[in-house]
Automatic annotation (TrEMBL):
Keywords: Cytoplasmic vesicle, Repeat
SUPFAM superfamilies registered for this protein in UniProt: Histone H3 K4-specific methyltransferase SET7/9 N-terminal domain
Phylogenetic placement of the source organism: Eukaryota, Metazoa, Chordata, Craniata, Vertebrata
Organism, as annotated: Culter alburnus (Topmouth culter)
One Gene Ontology cellular component: acrosomal vesicle
Designated name of the protein: MORN repeat-containing protein 3
Gene3D superfamilies given in the database record: Histone H3 K4-specific methyltransferase SET7/9 N-terminal domain
Subcellular location: Cytoplasmic vesicle, Secretory vesicle, Acrosome
InterPro entries: MORN (IPR003409), MORN3 (IPR052472)
């Protein structure tokens, strides 16, 4: 590895570029360009995982933390908030097939309110997630006529007298269950 940049007391500090040798070409390729503090990535910077995968955004203590954009090798893109190298806060995940999720993340998983747009099927799911699993919400047709693979039948209209109350009750239940599962007092030790 080669570092070209600012130093302080024998440690990377300030702006700098970190490069490594490509095993095939034997040439140096950039790995990281950005800010350093106390020999760790800190502040704004771009990390290159491969020629087609990179993260551009904020860093804290050598981890992706703050606002950032990650282009994955498989063509997916996440743009939003990060904490300790995981999606955390508000963010948008754009899948390689064009489908997308926009909503709340926690510890790298969908958690809380969000919308998942299935462009390939012409459907929109709006609801509540717990640990990456959709728990309660509504699925509706959305651009069904223009979809590549629309379902055979349209989604029927919800005829509950107060569908929002049903969703709010379900959300409250799942929120309470999530809190119980993460509360150390609930382990019965």
């Amino acid at each position: 590895m080669i570092y070209d940049g600012e130093w302080r007391c024998g440690k990377r500090e300030g702006f700098g570029t970190l490069s490594k040798t490509d095993p095939e070409t034997k040439e140096y390729v950039r790995v990281f360009v950005g800010s350093w503090r106390n020999d760790k990535k800190e502040g704004a910077g771009t990390y290159f995982y491969s020629p087609s995968a990179f993260y551009e955004g904020q860093w804290s203590e050598d981890q992706r933390s703050g606002w950032g954009r990650m282009q994955y090798e498989n063509g997916e893109l996440y743009e939003g908030e990060w904490l300790k190298d995981k999606h955390h806060g508000q963010g948008l995940l754009l899948l390689a097939n064009g489908n997308r999720f926009v909503g709340t993340w926690s510890d790298g998983q969908k958690n809380g309110h969000g919308k998942f747009l299935y462009l390939d099927r012409g459907q929109l799911y709006e609801g509540f997630w717990v640990d990456g699993v959709a728990k309660c919400g509504t699925l509706s047709d959305f651009g069904r006529e223009a979809a590549d693979r629309p379902p055979v039948y349209p989604i029927p209209k919800v005829c509950l007298q107060d569908s929002q109350a049903v969703l709010m009750e379900a959300q409250a239940y799942f929120t309470e269950e999530k809190e119980k599962s993460t509360d150390p007092k609930s382990y019965g030790c």
